[in-house]
Design a protein that fits this description.
Length: about 190
């Protein structure tokens, strides 16, 4: 599986770098994350629960930072075991570039392999789940950095499911609107 994306963060490059290396912020932003603990120099033990299609499991793994060029880039090497659900391993190259005085462009290219039941459910479901987790991570990460209000519209455009949910609440929250989005529209945007 290959995944590449870019996101604009509402903070200067140094602040974005610090946040990417703050385990408390990362724990709050990674969907299903139960813990991130230091496990040596530039290494972390991670535990999280994730669902990929019909497979839901608790994964325990390790994340190692390599090729560190602060505050511009690093490579994350990761591996995790989910018991009977299978395993995942891979790496992600993360780069930060200034986008003006108060913004930073975060780009990443990730490559991952899965095995066990995860591999049996099909690459399309695995890719979709990975994109959904990444979208939720960046939504939470932007909110942690203080950019939630100004980026809500952009996030809603990137994640139509979130937009559909907010559309269903209605303007004053008491009467749902009749507007619905089809799942095929959501998949085609992925």
């Amino acid at each position: 599986m290959e995944l590449s994306e870019s996101h604009t963060l509402p903070v200067p490059q140094q602040r974005a770098w610090e946040a990417l290396n703050d385990t408390a912020i990362l724990k709050a932003c990674i969907p299903g994350c139960e813990s991130i603990d230091a496990d040596g120099e530039n290494a972390y033990a991670v535990a999280l629960t994730a669902a990929v299609g019909p497979v839901k499991a608790r994964f325990k793994g390790r994340m190692q930072l390599a090729d560190i060029d602060a505050p511009r880039s690093y490579t994350i090497q990761f591996e995790g075991q989910g018991g009977a659900a299978g395993f995942g391993k891979g790496d992600a190259r993360v780069t930060l570039e200034p986008a003006g005085d108060d913004a930073t462009t975060l780009s990443y290219t990730a490559s991952a392999q899965v095995g066990g039941k995860l591999a049996q459910i099909g690459s399309r479901l695995v890719d979709g789940a990975a994109r959904k987790i990444a979208a939720e991570f960046f939504k939470r990460f932007t909110e942690q950095l203080g950019g939630g209000a100004q980026n809500d519209e952009a996030a809603a455009q990137e994640n139509p499911e979130t937009q559909a949910a907010s559309d269903a609440e209605g303007a004053d929250g008491d009467e749902p609107q009749k507007r619905k989005r089809s799942w095929t529209a959501w998949i085609s945007k992925s």
